Amino acid sequence: MSSRFLLAALATACCLMAAAAAAETFVVVESSAKDVKVGAELAEGAAFTVPDGARVVLVGSSGQVVTLTGPFQGAPKPSGSGEPQSRVLAAVASLVATSGTTVGVSRATGSGWRASATKTAEDVFAIDASDGGDTCLYDASTARMTRDPSAGPGDVTITAMEGSAKAVFTWTRDMAYAPWPKDVPLADEASYLIEQAGRDAAAVAAVHLLHDDPAMTGIQRVVQLKESGCDAQARLLLAIIARNAR
After folding, report:
1. Residue bearing the bigger pLDDT, 108 or 41
2. How many domains does the chain have?
3. What does pTM read for this prediction?
């Protein structure tokens, strides 16, 4: 009897440990609720309040996105599908950690103009001609650029920092985006100098070509961008996901 009891106790303990390990933690990525801070982590079962008229968006460690609209009181429900992943939680939490507001991840996206100009997921993958930085792309053949809309029209000169490829074209006032010039082929882990007429400082864009998997979810792409060093793009994409969450 004692050995049977011991085996049963061990089995129960293992089940409890497995359940605890699978418990889903949530990160707040958008919030208009005064007492629910962006970046806060909520353990599964943790209850909180969303007042009437407020909205809170959470991302779970399984990658699920949960939107709560007030009045709400209780705990977010885990999806029941998908295993919790520490890398998802770590990536999302780090992207919103610098927000420091109750508004959302869009406050931590870097350039204010870029956050305002980025409307779709496709916009996230435009190379920033004004500020440069690490840029992840899935398809170099369809690459395009964007820049600060406050900049006036003028010539833009793009030079590959490895090799001699160079292109000059005119950016007109009504252009929000422009195709990347074919005369300057994009390569993985290569950098490009972008000079604009009327600006003293040039931008440097470092390109990272990623493998595209059509089966990836939006949150999985956010994690991929973060882990590839493209934090600004990861924040922009996360902001779009949160904005469109229902």
Report:
1. 41
2. 2
3. 0.85
